[in-house]
């Protein structure tokens, strides 16, 4: 199983640094939540780390040849457009393109595992384009899972899912990390991030401003500085409990 190393990752768009000097090492077995407000640079970081955007600095993934990279890292993108009307089963099977020489039985087993993990058994013969938004989101996570890679990146994977599906996906990612995989997911639900991630990294205006266990990162001061809100934090039986309280009355920074 491989981890991820980023060194000095940076990216400038239209003369503005949207990602600056990001150093990050994630070991196998970690489920890391990538947090930050809209526009902080989370998607940019994920895509640059995957080598999908040209960036300054180094990424251990971007250095790999394309075919090898597809066997090492899967990516659940933020955009969830499904263009082709194909059955769920066939769409999930596309994840196996990364393993061209694999035995048919291995392909079938990986597809079945992914379908079961996302609770899609009852939908597997339906046209993916005819599913609800949340159902389509689960299908796209299943496709990434079928890729059966040691590293999984997911960009807001639980956005738009119902509360049960959110918990199921967070549990699944925690379990994948428990099997020794490296999981990095951008998240806006700080409560679920606090509960399920082993580590959180906080991005603000393109820079990593905090990195550690949930109680080290989700402090009232960090939450106020980065998200502009007050929050109540306490220790519950399952770890840190987070509750958003109110806006801090100050102008939101310009995002131009
Ligand atoms: N193609 C682009 N051209 C110019 N600027 C861009 C482009 N893509 C993103 N940006 C800018 O880069 C910054 C970071 O965007 P990014 O999508 O990485 O943020 P994010 O943290 O993923 O936000 P969100 O939570 O809203 O998804 C934003 O200010 C955005 O406007």
How would you describe what is shown here?
The protein has 256 residues and is an alpha/beta fold. It has a single domain (4-247), classed as 3-Layer(aba) Sandwich (Rossmann fold). It has helices at 42-49, 66-72, 88-93, 104-117, 133-146, 163-178, 190-196, 214-217, 220-227, and strands spanning 4-13, 16-26, 31-35, 56-59, 73-76, 151-155, 182-186, 199-204, 207-212, 229-236, 239-247. The strands form three sheets. Strands 5-6-7-3-8-9 form a six-stranded mixed sheet, sandwiched between helices. The protein has a three-stranded antiparallel sheet with strand order 2-1-4, covered by helices on one side. A hairpin with a 2-residue loop joins strand 10 and strand 11 (239-247). Helix 4 runs antiparallel to helix 5. The longest helix is centred in the middle third of the chain and has 16 residues, at 163-178. The chain is globular, with a radius of gyration of 18 Å. The protein starts with a strand and ends in a 9-residue tail after the last strand. The mean pLDDT is 94. It binds adenosine-5'-triphosphate (ATP). Adenosine-5'-triphosphate binds at residues 13-14, 18, 36, 38-44, 78, 255.
Give the secondary structure arrangement, pairings included.
Blueprint: E1 4-13, E2 16-26, E3 31-35, H1 42-49, E4 56-59, H2 66-72, E5 73-76, H3 88-93, H4 104-117, H5 133-146, E6 151-155, H6 163-178, E7 182-186, H7 190-196, E8 199-204, E9 207-212, H8 214-217, H9 220-227, E10 229-236, E11 239-247
Helix pairs in contact: 4-5
This protein binds adenosine-5'-triphosphate.
């Amino acid at each position: 199983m491989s981890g991820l190393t980023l060194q000095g990752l940076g990216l400038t768009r239209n003369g503005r640094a949207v990602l600056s000097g990001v150093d990050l090492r994630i070991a196998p077995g970690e489920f890391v939540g990538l947090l930050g407000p809209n526009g902080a640079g989370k998607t940019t970081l994920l895509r640059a780390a995957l080598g999908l955007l040209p960036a300054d600095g180094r990424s251990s993934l971007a250095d790999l040849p394309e075919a090898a990279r597809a066997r090492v890292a899967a990516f659940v993108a933020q955009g969830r457009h499904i263009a082709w009307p194909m059955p769920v089963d066939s769409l999930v099977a596309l994840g196996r393109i990364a393993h061209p020489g694999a035995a048919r039985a291995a392909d079938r087993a990986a597809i079945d595992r992914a379908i079961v993990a996302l609770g899609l058994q009852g939908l597997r013969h339906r046209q993916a384009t005819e599913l609800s938004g949340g159902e389509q989101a689960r299908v796209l996570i299943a496709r990434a899972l079928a890729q059966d890679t040691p590293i999984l990146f997911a960009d807001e994977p639980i956005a738009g899912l119902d509360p049960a599906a959110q918990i199921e996906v967070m549990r699944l990612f925690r379990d994948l990390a428990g099997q020794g995989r490296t999981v990095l997911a951008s998240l806006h639900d700080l409560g679920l991030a606090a509960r399920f991630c082993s580590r959180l990294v906080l991005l603000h205006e393109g820079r990593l401003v905090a990195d550690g266990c949930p109680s080290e990162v989700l402090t009232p001061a960090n939450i106020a500085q980065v998200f502009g809100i007050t929050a109540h934090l306490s220790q519950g039986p399952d770890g840190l409990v987070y509750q958003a309280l109110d806006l801090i009355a100050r102008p939101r920074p310009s995002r131009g």
